[in-house]
Amino acid sequence: MLQPNRRVLLWLTLLALLTRLVWVLLVHPPGEYVFSDMRKYLERAQEVAEFGMRVGHREFAWQAWGTHVLLSIPLRLFGADRLEFAAAMWGLMAAAAVPLAYLLAARVCTRRGAPEVIGVAVLLWHPNLSNAGYFLSETPFLCFALASTWALTRTLQTGRGALLAGCLGAVTFAVRPQSALFFLLVAVTWLVNRRRLAHVRVRTLVMVALPLLAMLAFSAWRFQAHTGYWAGVAENANMNLTAGRCHNIVTQAYRTEHEMTRALASDNTSDGRRVSLPNFRLAWKLPSWHPLAVRPVLGEESVRFVGYIGDPAIHREIRQRCYAASTVWQQIRMSFVNVMLSWFLDRQWPEMEKGREYFLPAVDVYSVLFQVFVWAPSMIGMFVGVWWVRRRPALALVAWQIVNSIVVAGIFFGTIRLRTPYDPYALILAVEGALVAGPVVARVVRGFRWPRWLRRRG
User: Fold this and answer.
1) Which of 11, 74, 16 is nearest to 42 (CA)?
2) DSSP label at residue 80
């Protein structure tokens, strides 16, 4: 663990505030980019701001509730149409991620200068800056996941701040329930190191777990109040799981058989209640021999049915058909493709949306930078963190974040948009992976028997 440089922390915070607020207030105000998912989040937030958290509306269970409730706070305070205050809140959360990444790196890294490199890299990491310009879950998840990881790392190292870590984790779960796997892996880390971490007592664990369990219970109750059944937090998980196991590009739900029959007759993939996955569409256009090609199991681009788009029984029946029509190997291959789309081939959405490509070149450049300079060393760092779970449990927590993102992507699907909130952890692991792999590579290079003519020049 390294001591953070207060001057560096101050400069990173000030520059993060300046760049993020200029972005969301002047360059790319999210209120001017309200369509698709952003429109749904904003509509729910405005209703919560005006009428409170009413139950019984199934649409409110479509996505996890944390994002639209956070978005409703400035709208409740300043007015449902004062989107500039909501934009400022998104900018502040995006800015907070920069000093949080620096503080986390200082607790995890062992080489002097590494936290500063990571802090500057996160400050300049345009994909997360770009996400702040949309009312999406990426920005609050980036902020609260980093905050909870830092707090959990501090608790693991000192035994202090357990309740704060639990509360930050609870907000993270409310924004994206997929973070539950990470918190389970944190518990595994403590279990493996319980004798070495004598300062982390049972009382400490209870203080961390209570807010998380309370948030899980409330989210499950809220889901049941909206949908009428238990076993869930957000109904879009049903559709996402079907897409991940069937590799359909579009999901279309119709109110009547007549509407669906008419769509089938005209092969219309744009009507009904429709959800499309742009990353799958990119992979669908690849030739069949390509290792990342998406090939719908049921043979068609769209999955169509009559009923609610998130109905669990309907999706369960569709997945059963997909399992019957595919082999175990095909399912494994689909998971591999899902994960690879997080890193390769895919382009960041919403920037890739038709007619909105003005900001796409910048995020495309960062996609290449990630693939060339970050991906391989971060994978080394991830394996090192998991392997050294006893030696360096703090590094293991950062590694578990990437493991969490890979597992979730493999089961459901992966996109650059969903991956970018995890990029600060990848940057930390890339630095640590390079420090571990560098001496090994140097020894291999020194020990290699070079041709005589090269040795003469050497």
Assistant:
1) 74
2) T
